Amino acid sequence: MHEPLLTLKNVRTSFRIEGQYHAAVDDLDLEIRKNEVFAIVGESGCGKSALALSITRLHNETYTKLEGEILFGGRNLLDLKLSELNKVRGRDISMIFQDPLTAMNPLMRVGAQIEESLSYHTKLDKAGRKERTIELLKQVGMRNPELTYSNLPHELSGGMRQRAMIALAIACKPQLVIADEPTTALDVTIQAQILDLLRDLQKEEQSSVILITHDLGVVAEMADRVAVMYAGQIVELASAEELFRVDENGKNIGAKHPYTRSLLASIPSAGDDNMERLNAIKGVVPTLKNLPRTGCRFCARIPWVPDSAHEADPQLIEIEPNHFVRCVCYKTFKFENEVGGNN
Description:
Layout: E1 4-17, E2 20-33, E3 37-41, H1 48-55, E4 64-72, E5 75-76, H2 82-88, E6 93-96, H3 100-103, H4 110-121, H5 126-139, H6 145-150, H7 158-170, E7 176-180, H8 188-205, E8 208-213, H9 216-222, E9 225-230, E10 233-239, H10 240-243, H11 258-265, E11 316-320, E12 323-326
Parallel strand pairs: 3-8, 3-9, 6-7, 7-8
Antiparallel strand pairs: 1-2, 1-4, 4-5, 9-10, 10-12, 11-12
Helix pairs in contact: 4-5, 5-7, 7-8
């Protein structure tokens, strides 16, 4: 039996728009296990980052309402006072942001920013903090950690800034690291280096990682389990091995929900000589103000599935051991109908 590190129960994150609250994360239940890489995938606007920021309560509370339970170490993080929450942030749960240039203080040197976290969460003296900071910069692959220690964030390249951000995130050896699109702004070569670094650090520190991304290739390579999000809901949850399972012809047979299959179908394949154009998912993710109130939220974008196949109130159900799907419409349509049907 896997022991949960973080448990989310009926979590709802709502943003105030024109005087009314609209849910970007809608009654979500989830468990993150110890020592696993858990990926959350989906298009932009599906609620991935909103969920990540909810875990550490980094949303602007003036315009955001958080409901439900986020249980960590036997405590509901949503009930903690800010002073108590600040002891958890950085020490037990840390975050790697998409853009380290905006996430880091532009007026503080890299070393000082890492030392600030160590000063708050550890009992190291000044000399010990500097030694630990240099050690961290070496650990994340900085070629000249002493120089990086004295640099301002804007003096570093994009890849170096992301490495510095990772060093800051792992400084206090947190149990959980949330990586929100950690390679978005980096070129392909640097992306691979950063992902290798994250994987190595996760194994070395025996920590859990929530990896938020839209890149299914990254997920297939790194994740133990995968949650597919759409319009604030999890529509499919399974092991990465099951989700990317293929038959003898290389056709995916593991993914079940039409949204997951649409995402997989949109990935270009170098070996597909018959593909004249890329498969694209019809339409766009609905805005918070225009979310469907009933039925499958993805149904408007899958014309190859008849209306009669959709449930009125789809729930996340376990169709096989540890494989959950929202909406059973996948049972009533043929997968071959997807080809060309979502362009």
